[in-house]
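Worked example 3 (structure in, sequence out).
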C-alpha cells in the first residue's frame, strides 16, 4: 500500500512537473523527439481516460432516447390500455404506433412529420375486416 501511496504522492507529481510541456499550443511543434517520448505515457493515459469518459457519456445519451416512448398520451395513468370489440370497429382502422397521434390510439398521420424530423420509419397498424363471402 505504501508503494502505491508513494507513486501517487511523490513519483507521479514529479513526473508531471518534469514534463517538457511548452507554454503555447504552437510550442508543441518545437519539441524534440525525446520530449515527445517523455510526454507519450502521460498523453496515452489522458487519451484512455478521455475515451472512457466520452464512451460513458455517449452510451448514456443513446439510451436516453430509448427510455420514454409515450410523451403525452394519458400520462396520469399507470399504464395506457385500450380495448375494443372487433365488431364495434369500422371496416378498416389504423392504430397509432408512434405515440404522437392526437387521436391515440388511432393514427392521425402525425407519424409522417415525426419520421421527417427524426429520420424514423414508424407507421400505423392497419386492420381491415374481410367482408364475408369475398376471397
Ligand atoms: S400517428 Fe402514430 S402511427 Fe400514425
Amino acid at each position: 500500500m505504501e508503494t502505491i501511496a508513494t507513486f501517487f504522492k511523490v513519483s507521479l507529481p514529479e513526473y508531471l512537473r518534469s514534463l517538457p510541456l511548452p507554454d503555447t499550443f504552437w510550442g508543441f511543434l518545437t519539441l524534440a523527439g525525446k520530449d515527445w517520448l517523455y510526454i507519450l505515457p502521460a498523453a496515452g493515459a489522458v487519451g484512455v481516460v478521455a475515451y472512457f469518459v466520452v464512451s460513458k457519456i455517449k452510451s448514456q445519451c443513446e439510451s436516453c432516447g430509448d427510455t420514454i416512448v409515450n410523451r403525452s398520451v394519458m400520462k396520469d395513468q399507470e399504464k395506457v390500455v385500450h380495448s375494443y370489440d372487433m365488431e364495434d370497429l369500422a371496416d378498416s382502422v389504423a392504430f397509432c404506433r408512434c405515440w404522437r397521434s392526437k387521436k391515440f390510439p388511432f393514427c392521425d398521420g402525425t407519424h409522417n412529420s415525426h419520421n421527417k424530423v427524426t429520420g424514423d420509419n414508424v407507421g400505423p397498424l392497419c386492420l381491415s375486416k374481410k367482408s364475408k363471402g369475398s376471397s
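Notes: The CA atoms of residues 55 and 61 lie 10 Å apart. The beta strands are 92-95, 125-128.
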